[in-house]
Amino acid sequence: MKKTILAIAIPALFASAANAAVIYDKDGTSFDVYGRVQANYYGEHDDADGELVGSSRLGWSGKVALNDTWSGIAKTEWQVSAENSDNKFNSRHIYVGLDGSQYGKIIFGQTDTAFYDALEATDIFNEWGDVGNFYDGRQEGQIIYSNSFGGFSGKLSYQTNDDVAVKVTDVGQGVKEDEVFGPDVKRNYGFAAAAGYDFDFGLGLDAGYSTSELENKTTNDKGNKDEWAVGAHYAINGFYFAGMYTQGKIDNDNTGWDGKGRGYELAASYNVDAWTFLAGYNFTEAKNNTTSTSYEDQVDETLLGVQYNFTSKFKAYTEYKIQGIDDRDDEWTVALQYNF
Fold first, then answer.
1. What is the value of pTM for the model shown?
2. Rounded to an integer, what is the distance from CA 266 to the centroid of its chain?
3. From the CB of residue 271, how many other CB atoms can be counted at a distance below 10 Å?
């Protein structure tokens, strides 16, 4: 689902993009800067020791008209950690491309794959959520084409060779690639596709598929990770509801080892004046034929949240994560966030 539709349903959650500072906008050329600064206090149930953590995010986007139809576009966005944190700058989106209006958009670089379009509708929390799936996260080296017509939207993405597949997520949040392929795994290529349709009365439907070829650089064992997802969302009178179901699988063609997972996410929000109330549930289960023969729960989380917007640029929120797996503690956070 498109962020513009989400912003209508739950406007308080996307303040930073909406409040981007326009540095230059003239004769078809524009340049915007945006970002946020926030401080979170994190705690766990029955644990008196909490932690106050600061973080910030900074990005810019540019556009220049080439003719009446085509424009050159670019975007960068970084997550900036606090002084004593590791990985001070983490790149989120870095791409350049062409916007052809009715002919669609094509970009080159690092961002979310097309598969994320099938997951986006349930990704509405400030802090947690979005873990009832097996998505690899933002990837570098991509070529992405997207277009929309009426209520239809579609996207295709292709990822070139990535010598270190560091962002490949575990199927089921617990079935490791090294259990299937051994250590030192690279991605030879990746492909994803997504399609959606938004009805005029607030209902939207989404579906996506992703596949990538993985290879152990030492043994040359090869195989694939495949996943698919379907979802729906509905917005009416300040209420928003979304659900998603997905399955994923990793196969090693040389050894016959594999890992399988399935999961789903539910999310809801209600927005009234400056207040937004959120609730959600994430669940995944997984198995691999090297250590288990039956599915085991990997994620079982109930999420609750409240957000208050002092202005369009400044907000406070609190979220609570209730763990359904016995050996994991409940978690909570309280935060202040400034957007520009």
1. 0.90
2. 15
3. 21
